[in-house]
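Please decode residue identities from the backbone states below.
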């Protein structure tokens, strides 16, 4: 498989994340029923936080030299790191890019993690459970919140990688 890397976003690459976030919101709309605004853009609450707030990190995902997607990390309850958003372009899905970048990311930042997804998205549900199992075996928990999201909690420090 080609090399998969993360690039921390700075002011020069912020517009790239903003454009990819529109693709992410469009895809999510099949579950959220969100519609674009009058300007043709989807709302992405808190996206600006990832460029202004401490401990909020935005990364571009590259597969070889190609732009593959993005991920957003922020602090979460109990000192966890929350994977706020994760997106891989369709052309690179089911090719190992997502699995590689998420397992590498989790293993590179040891500690408590929280990952959320919607159960009505069966591909996402399978993917995130596979990621958790790959990183910490069966030493992860899940909980349902607001009847919409399933949260996975894993401790990479304790269970290692």
């Amino acid at each position: 498989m080609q090399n998969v890397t993360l690039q921390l976003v700075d002011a020069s690459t912020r517009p790239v994340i903003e454009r990819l976030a529109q693709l992410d919101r469009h895809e999510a709309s099949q579950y959220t029923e969100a519609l674009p605004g009058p300007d043709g853009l989807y709302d992405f609450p808190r996206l600006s936080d990832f460029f202004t707030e401490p401990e909020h990190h935005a990364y571009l995902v590259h597969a070889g030299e190609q732009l593959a997607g993005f991920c957003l990390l922020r602090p979460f309850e109990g000192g966890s790191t929350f994977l706020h958003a994760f997106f891989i372009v369709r052309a690179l899905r089911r090719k190992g890019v997502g699995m590689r970048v998420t397992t590498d990311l989790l293993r590179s930042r040891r500690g408590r993690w929280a990952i959320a997804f919607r159960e009505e998205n069966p591909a996402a549900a399978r993917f995130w459970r596979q990621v958790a199992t790959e990183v910490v075996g069966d030493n992860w928990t899940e909980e349902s919140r607001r009847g919409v999201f399933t949260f996975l909690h894993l401790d990479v420090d304790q269970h290692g990688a």
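Observation: The longest strand covers residues 66-75.
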